[in-house]
Every structure is written in C-alpha cells, then in structure tokens.
Amino acid sequence: MVIQESPNPQTVPATSASEVVIAIPTLNEAEHIADVLKQLLANEPYAAACQCVVMDGGSRDKTREIVQGLRARYPNLSLIDNPKKTQAHAMNLLLGSIFEDAQIAIRCDAHAEYPPGFVQNLVRAIETNDEASSIVISMDARSAGSCFRRGFALVADTKIGAGGAMHRGGQSSGWVAHGHHAAFRLDKFRELGGYDTSFRANEDAEYDQRLIQTGGRIWLDADIRIGYFPRDTLRGLWKQYWHYGLGRARNCAKHRSKLALRQLIPLFHVILIAIALFLSPFTWVGLLWPLAYLIIICGTALALFLRHGTICALWAAPALAAMHMAWGLGFIKGWMAEPKGHRA
After folding, report:
1. Measuring CA to CA, which residue among 40, 5, 227 is closest to residue 119?
2. How large is the C-alpha radius of gyration of the chain?
3. H helices within the chain, ranges in order?
C-alpha cells in the first residue's frame, strides 16, 4: 500500500456524501456551536451534503435553540438527544438504525476550530489509507480568551505539557496507537460496539486499544489539523486532568496495559511529592524534589514570558503544576478504586 500525501482541499472524495455522518457531541456550547457549524458546513459543499448531527446532552444554555435556528441554513443538520450526556454515549448513538447506511463518521468537537475542507480532506484520507480503520489528527492549542488560557496555550502542546504526544502539536504523520479521533470506518466501530460508555474520559484511548487488539490500524495525518481551546481557569484544568487520570487508570485495569513513559512522569511526581511531605520535617533532603520541580516549571514560564513578551505566560507554571498533580492523583484514585482482580 502506498500512503499518499494529504488530499487537496479542492478534491471531492469518491465516497458519496450520503454515506458520511458528521457527529458533534454538545453540552452547553452556545458560545461556540454556531462558529463550528459555519466552519464545517458553510463553505464546503461536500460537508454540507453530509448528514450533520448535533448530539446534545441536555444543554441549559442556548445551544439547542441555536442549532434549531441554523437548520434552515443547513438542511442536512439535525439535533438529537443524548440523555446520558457523555461523549461516549453521544458517539454510540451512531450504532442506531437511523445511521445504518453511513459508512464513515467524522467526529467533531463543539469547542474547536476547523480549517477549510476539513470533512472532505478526512474522507479522502481514509479512502487513500485503505489499511486504516481510523484517521486521527494533530491539535494545536489556541490562546484566545482569558489570560490563564493564553498562558497555558503556550505550554500545553510542549513536551513538558503534553509529554510528547504525537497528536498534540506534532508535525509527523504515521501509524500510531492513539490520537485525537476524527474519522472512523463505521463497520469497525459497529463491530467493536463503539465506545465503552463506562468511561467518562479516556474512552477514545480505550477504543483505540480494542481496535488495535482486533487488527485495526490508526493513521495520524499531521497535515489535517484543528485548533482547540484549553480550559480557561485553573479549576477547570484541574478537573479535566483529574478525569484524564481516572480514565487512564480504568483503561490500564481493563486491558492490563502499562503506562507510557510520558504518563509515568506525573505519577512519579505525585509519589515524590508525597515522600517529600513525609521527609521534610526531619531532613532537608525532603525538599530536593519540590525545589527542583519548582525551578523547572517557573523557569519554563519565565522563558515563555521572555520569548513571547506577555505576562500571561507566567500562568504556565501553575497550569503545569495543576495538570501534573491532578493527572497523577486521578490515576492513583482510579487505580485504587478498581476491583483488585481487574488490576494488572
């Protein structure tokens, strides 16, 4: 098989638009949903001809009203209820009979920024890569919004932030074990029963693990990229990475899998901090790791401030501290909560 370069945005896919469904899970996304739909559908005739489904988890803002109001502009747009709220439950609505004729699903987030030709480029990519069961893509943090978000966006996709994950700001395409979900062959998605809906987070990585175990392959196309908007408060970031850690622990327990090095680092950090808290009343040695870590994250924030000239860059230090500690604590909490027989 020959892997071709990413498709030209003007190239219309061979797959009929009637066989493609664009799925957008939402929950209180009134601020972004109109822009997302415009980016996906307004200037791309192929995407506008696909079935586009907003799967709403019970929004209490104006999300539903906005989507209903846009149906006159986008005739193939529909709104369906996701009573169980999570993204895993939303995407599993694709397993229903109303989507039985669809062959390819495009997963889009309501809190992201999409380039021209996004949908048709993904369909062309999965057509071209005939061994791929899924296409995943790279994500680039956007700094619009609060000062906290602008500072965190500067570090979010770096090695100290994302640990070198290929889909977080990565520039190289290739076969991967996991990435940001974008396009699925629905025959494989149906075969695997979709996402495991017991996962509140990390459902995508868990699906990828089952996919690979059953002979599927995942292609990361680094030339098809989206922008994403990180959490805009320290509290929101902590909550997000806490759930990431919980989800990863559940995934490891379910599949008896090991953590990658980049995932071990925040876990070791939490353990070292715990040891430091125990030792510090008795010996100065207990302060070594906390001081070293403080120098690392503050030095990173200062370097970003000097490079970008914005005081918001200094938020990178508490943001890094929050994501590392929350992920590690979440993992430990999730691991301890799993039944003993489920642990590796």
Report:
1. 40
2. 21
3. 33-37, 45-49, 63-70, 87-92, 118-128, 147-156, 159-162, 186-191, 203-213, 234-255, 261-279, 288-308, 316-337
φ, ψ for residue 44, nearest 5 deg: -130, 95
Q: How many residues does the chain have?
A: 344
The answer to whether residues 336 and 253 touch, using CB atoms and an 8 Å cutoff, is no
Q: Kindly tell me if the per-residue pLDDT of 183 is higher than 90.
A: yes
- How confident is residue 342, by pLDDT bands cut at 50, 70 and 90? low
d(CA 51, CA 22): 6
CA gap 189, 104 in Å, rounded: 10
User: What confidence score (pLDDT) does residue 68 get?
Assistant: 96
Q: Return the H-helix or E-strand segment holding 52.
A: strand 51-56
Q: Quote the pTM value.
A: 0.88
Alpha-carbon distances, residue 45 vs 73, 240, 330 (angstroms): 13, 36, 44
> Which tokens go with 39?
């980016």
Residue 105: beta bridge partners?
21, 184
List, for residues 116-158, the tens digit of each pLDDT value: 999 999 999 999 999 999 999 999 998 888 999 999 999 999 9
- Chain center to CA of 294: 28
> Pairing mode, if any, of strands 134-141 and 218-228?
parallel
CA distance 226 to 111: 11
pLDDT for the residue 111: 86
